[in-house]
Amino acid sequence: MSSDTTTDTVGTEAGTARITWHPAPAPRLVLALGHGAGGGVEARDLRALAAALPAHGVSVALVEQPWRVAGKKLAPAPKTLDTGWRGVWPALAAPGLPVISGGRSAGARVACRTAAELGAHAVLALSFPLHPPGRPEKSRAGELLGTGVPTLVVQGGNDPFGRPEEFPEAPGGTYDLIEVEHGDHGFAVPKRAATGQEQALEVITGGVVEWTGSLA
Question: How far apart are CA 199 and CA 88, in angstroms?
């Protein structure tokens, strides 16, 4: 954690959340990133983005949902996650900059579901769980297609929650998708893969840097 990183606690109707800010020297956007249901903001992709994006004018806010702050092991129901996200939004918008709503896995679903009502500038969906493993008929594509704002999906090529080729066509350019070759749901790549772990993270950070640079 860099010396200029700051941490805020925010009260929400779902409990106390925590925001760790990685500020840009000359910010033009805020990228808010929520975590998944099985982990926290220490996820490799979230940390990589927090390290890379500030140099490109994007302040990164890593958001810990109240259940994680409280030390609980299991994530609550989706509507409770949405409540927590709504509760931190005023703090995310406080710098007065456009806010990209983002997250990984369950956090990506939260960002998609709430983007329109919160006035998000765009959505970043990391490892979007298109369906439960082995249950492609239980599609969550409606959440992704319904954001109403520019949306980028970053998906591992071997993600059991939805491989890139399983994603629906994006009508009218609803969303863009970047594939991380050989990556699993946590963007881990096997040692035998031609793409190494550092290269995989560079695909993620490079793609997000380019995408955020294209946002008006």
Answer: 33
